[in-house]
Amino acid sequence: MSAASVRRLIVIGLIALWEILPRMGFIPELFLPSLSSTLAAGWNEAGEYAHALAVTLYEVAISMAFACGGGILLGAVVGSLPRPRILIMPMVSSLYAVPLVILYPVFTVWLGIGSESKIAFASIYGFLPTMLATAAGIQTIDPQLLLAARSMGATLSQRLVRVIIPAAIPTVLSGLRVGGALVIVGVVVSEMLISSAGIGYLISRYRTILDSPHVFAGVLLVLAMAVAFNAAIKWIEGKAAIWQTGTRAGQSAEEIAPAALQPAT
Amino acid sequence: MQSGLGVKAARVAIVVALFAIWEILSRTGIVNPRLLPSASDTLATLGDLLQRASVRKDLAVTATEVVTAFALAVPVGALIGFLIAENRYFAEVAKPLLFFAFSIPKSIFLPMFILVFGVGFSQKVGFGFFSTIFIVIMSTTTAVESVKVEHLTVARSYGATPMQTAFRVYLPSMLPVLLEALRISMIFNLTGVILAEMYASRDGIGHQIATWGENFQMKQLLAGVVMIAAIAIAFNELVRWVEARCSHWRT
Amino acid sequence: MQPLANIAPLKPAGAIEVRNVGQVFKTTTQDVVALDNVSLDVKPGRFVVLVGPSGCGKSTLLMMMAGLRQQTSGTITISGAPIPEPDPNRVGVVFQEASLFPWLTAEENVEFPLALRGISKNDRRARAQEALKLVGLDGFGKRHPHELSGGMKQRVSIARGLVQDPPVLLMDEPFAALDEQTRMTMGDELLRIWAATGKTVVFVTHSLTEAVYLADEVIVMSPRPGRIVDHLQVPLPRPRTYEMLSGDAFGSLRDRIWRHIRKSA
Predict the structure, then answer these.
(1) Interface mutation vs chain C, best among A86, A146, A152, A165, most C CBs within 10 Å
(2) A259, B73, B94, C69: which could form a disulfide with B132 (CB 3.0–4.6 Å)?
(3) In the predicted model, what is the mean pLDDT of chain C?
(4) Nearest residue of A to residue B91 by CA position?
């Protein structure tokens, strides 16, 4: 049997178990409500979830603009200038070791518990890895391409516009993917911690009243958001596949800094 | 490739400058000092906090949780990673699933841990374990795959026993990748445990930080942030230092 | 088209003069002499091959002729004028591996140097077509580099080097990444293009056979410090044929080069 079909069976099996185990009483409903009761819970409160989703998406969109815009821009600058790179990159990756979630209380004190503190936190949360990924990716641009452009008399600005930027497109995309995923996590986590609106808030509220089906409906919604975002980026990457060969030996940024690119919790 | 003395001095200068700007912003009142206590006040508070028995106890609680979660996640994850990497078919089946599991945000499952374990030690360790294990599995498979087939063939052709192959080929080839994995796993683990403490807990330094935040105790809050950041960076640098020592294995 | 309009040529177009050139790389611990007092004359229309072991400075010398790197001492003139920076009107460069831009099609790659100088789309296209035809890639213009074989990619690189019709073509191990058969075919192709255009070619290689097979003159270099140890004429008639490879004349030339290289290795 092909690996793909086994995989499909596993996924179907897991979904089936999700329905069957709670129904048969092997797992208490409180720990894991069945798939059908989760979906029903979500459907019954569709209006509430839709409103929460709107709040969350709004915060995600703004944070993404900050995190990805800033991260890609700064990563490109730092990645292409050797001196700042040597100076700053190790510091940035040290900073990456800090569990940034401890900053969220600071933002709530400064900005209140509305959307502003979530946007501030999620922007910072997504910023560092995006910057690291972009800077790493810029470095993978084949130096031969730049040398060739120079031999043809390209000026610095021509090299930037005609070589560095097109060659950096796959990197920018992977930066976007990492940053975007983290921004979603950042927004939802901050909503879960202290908040008055959004999906994270709903999850936490239903958790305190031990209403598992509603908790899982929220979790499912966030999952769907993350999956949809991933799929969107994949689609764009597919469209830009021709660029993928623009880096040295066809390396992608992930191969160079795999861990830096992944969403921390 | 190693940074010279000048670069190190420049880095220290940047950090000092950041603290200086912080101090000036607060002292001159450009930023309300109630919202941003000065750097010196914060560091003084940090000194006080470290004297306090309650804070030390919180640190001990967090450390215990972190170490427990780490000690569970690393061997279990490494074992799963090995099994997956060693079997082609298995790898083909499992890898996309793992990638998927890896890419979804783990934090949204935090409420589930509370529903299952209640609020306490096992909930935090459980969530720390859950946030760490996927990265351990992934890194282990990467590490195994980083072993060059040529090296294995050479070892086999000279009649190396499985034991010899493990210790003379696998381990040295994988060591740099494993160290890197250890470092990243620790970051994930620490983040997971602290988030769990902030979300719902009665003790631990993450809980303490959340409480300071809710009570607008900015000095303590910032001192706590500086403290955790310092601990995390120190650990990170320690592992990177070891990595650098082993770096001649790379390439 | 008058590519040399702005230079008053003291020497005929295509002449290369290298006078007492030295190149010192400064590292933190010591100064490395990459080239030591190298002098060389290449007459217009000649096919000259630089050969020698790694580190003998042959590529460095080529990069200096291209204006991509400046010598520490001495002078280099191309068509009678020094070359302080790359000048695609005087010198075309072909690099080792395909340094084609992966996001551009073959013809867009060939047009690249023209686009840098703001030449109109129609002119560009016409000249690119001409160059592609010259290298035998008529009809492949719309393909992207990843859709071309290694040999075809290098043909595109050659077309790109020739598109501005410079009198000099510099080639830095252009066929090193190709397999033996393709390499031989490309050698014949290059000789055909060279005969058709009458360019001065300076060609860097590791391969003794390739050197003797292609060259009018072979310059043998040795490392530490990089200097010229022999300069030999290849009296074999043109066109070169595969039969010559097994002839005595060919063998003794190759032996002579090998003895130099063995000594310095």
Answers:
(1) A152
(2) B73
(3) 87
(4) A3
